[in-house]
Specification:
- This protein is of the alpha+beta class.
- The chain folds into 2 domains: 148 residues, SH2 domain (SHC Adaptor Protein, 2-Layer Sandwich); 31 residues, no CATH class.
- The protein is 28% helix and 18% strand.
- The strands form 2 sheets. A 5-stranded mixed sheet has the order 4-3-2-1-7, with helices on one face.
- The protein is globular.
- 22% of the residues are buried.
- Keywords: Growth regulation, SH2 domain, Signal transduction inhibitor, Ubl conjugation pathway.
- One of its GO terms (cellular component) is phosphatidylinositol 3-kinase complex.
């Protein structure tokens, strides 16, 4: 098993100094998983909708009066998971654990179809996948306590205001559709854009 260490030189290029210290410890199964989780954590901390170690009751209080589709990401209180998405659904607030294997994150919203769910190497990519794409788009359903509701991640519940620099990065990533456009930028700018290139709307 691999555990987190600030002395891990292989992680020196990641934002370890900015990492939120979780209130429980989950072991990593490999260095690859460690890198993936830390990389996603860095992006989550930039997002403005990552709430760290709040619990389910606190998440429920934050979301209960919000419109359906409002969501946030927090640390999971279960030591078997790293993160949880808390979302306001038609059934009320539901907490969806984000599962992880050696090289991807995923959610099993339907226990009968757990073997065919999409996998992502970043939590922001996972979130983007479950955001509505328009009329006619495929809908994912949550099965909870014998009831069913569509899973729609529509609006992040922000708790911080992002810097102007970060907001500009998000907008540029949205507007740049062709890789050739990005290739014309200085390498340092390309890297900065890439560091947060899967942001929700």
């Amino acid at each position: 098993m691999v555990t987190y260490s600030k002395a891990d030189s292989a992680m020196g290029h990641l934002c370890i100094s900015k990492m939120h210290v979780p209130y429980h410890y989950k072991l990593f199964t490999s260095k690859e998983q460690h890198k993936m989780v830390v990389r996603s954590l860095c992006r989550l901390q930039e997002s403005g909708f990552y709430y760290g170690s709040i619990n389910g009751k606190q998440a429920n209080a934050l979301l209960e009066n919000e419109p359906t589709g409002t969501f946030l990401v927090r640390d999971s209180a279960d030591i078997h998971y790293f993160y949880t998405i808390s979302v306001k659904t038609a059934l009320g607030v539901r907490n969806l654990r984000i599962q992880v294997d050696n090289n991807s994150f995923y959610m099993s919203t339907d226990p009968m179809k757990s073997d065919c769910v999409p996998h992502f190497d970043c939590i922001l990519k996972l979130i983007k996948h479950y955001m509505p794409l328009g009329i006619g788009a495929k809908v994912t359903f949550i099965y909870s306590k014998g009831e069913t509701a569509p899973l729609e991640l529509i609006k992040p519940l922000y708790h911080t205001t992002s810097s102007l620099q970060h907001l500009c990065r998000k907008q540029i990533n949205r507007d740049m559709s062709a890789p050739s456009e990005r290739d014309q930028l200085p390498v340092s700018v390309q890297q900065y854009l890439f560091d947060y290139n899967e942001t929700p709307r």
